[in-house]
Amino acid sequence: MPTLAEQPARTAPTGLVWAVLVTATAISWYLGDGHGARRAATVLVLVVAFGKVYLVGRYFMELREAPRALLLLFTGWTVAVCAVLVGMYLTSET
Description:
Blueprint (H helix, E strand, L loop, with lengths): L6 H26 L5 H23 L7 H24 L3
Helix pairs in contact: 1-2, 2-3
C-alpha cells in the first residue's frame, strides 16, 4: 500500500487528465453553440467526445493498468466507432 507521500505523485496524472476533459468539454460546448461551420463543428465535437471516452476509460476506469491487449482493443473500438459515426454523419443528406 502506498504511503501518504507517494499518493500525490500517483494521482497527479488524473488531475491533468481531468483538466483536459474540462477543456475538451468547453471546446465542445463552444462549437455546439453555433460557432464555426456546422458540419465541421459537428465532426469536431464527435472527435472530441470520443477523445474524452478514451481518456475516461484509460485513466478513470483503470485501463492504464490493464493488459496491453485490452488497452489495444479499447483503443481500436474507440477509433472505429468514432470513424463510423463521423462517416455516417458526413454521408447523410442533412
